[in-house]
Amino acid sequence: MAPLCSASPRPLEAPGQPRRGARPPRTVAVAAGARASGAEARASLVLALASQALAASQRRAADLAAEAAKYAFPSRRFEPRTLEEALMSVPDLETVPFRVLKREADYEIREVESYFVAETTMPGRFGFDFNGSSQSFNVLASYLFGKNVASEQMEMTTPVITRKGEPSSETMEMTTPVITKKSAGENKWKMSFVMPAKYGSNLPRPKDPSVTIKEVPSKIVAVAAFSGLVTDDDISKRESKLRESLQKDTEFRVKDGSVVEVAQYNPPFTLPFTRRNEIALEVKRNDISS
């Protein structure tokens, strides 16, 4: 009888221990590596976004500081004649270029270069009531800061000009920031913002139909400066005084049909005694041929 073949006994395996020759699992290592790569990507993204936000905030802070400096360190483009004018401050903003032709005790004669304005008719009967002025200012500021067909944001200029409107048969505009003028025939006032000179005639078209763009031709004006708050009664008195003073001028006289314009150079938060306001009347040289 052939002997029975007995197989080698298989060693006992400890519970949970892998068999001999079995391939070790790699799932855990792959998953750990994926988690590490994902965390690194998220961290890099967060750092990149934080860096961009910091750079943007620094640029914004620099822009705000530069803008604030224009008001904190006012321009000295006007030569003071009196203590009142010496206390006046004017923001270092773009304005209309002019040349002084003559200086008197109560006024000066300027030759003003041509410029463009954005203009709107004020809703009230008066030029300097709070509601009408605020509404007109906001309309023009909206145009300046992007409410136009090009969505162009333009820099603020000075002054704001308020003027009496002319009769419909006559076209006339005036100088600088916001101008308010009263219409002789319609009893309406107009407010204007001077447009940045770099645009010239290529200004974006307003979206608001109540805003019009006009070119103001070069002209000669008589200007009287004053500080404080502006009221209709005060402007009426100052206009009369300026007209009386110009009657004594042997070189210049008020141009026929000239209407008063008021230029305000300062933002609302300026102290009244440091504000610079001006009234202006267009003049022309006297005919000395005779």
Automatic annotation (TrEMBL):
Composition bias, Low complexity: 14-27
Organism of derivation: Panicum hallii
Protein family per UniProt: Belongs to the HEBP family.
InterPro entries (UniProt xref): Reg_factor_effector_dom_sf, SOUL_heme-bd
Taxonomic path: Eukaryota, Viridiplantae, Streptophyta, Embryophyta, Tracheophyta
Gene3D superfamilies to which the protein is assigned, alphabetical: Regulatory factor, effector binding domain
Protein name (Swiss-Prot/TrEMBL): SOUL heme-binding protein
Residue span of region Disordered: 1-27
Pfam hit, one: SOUL
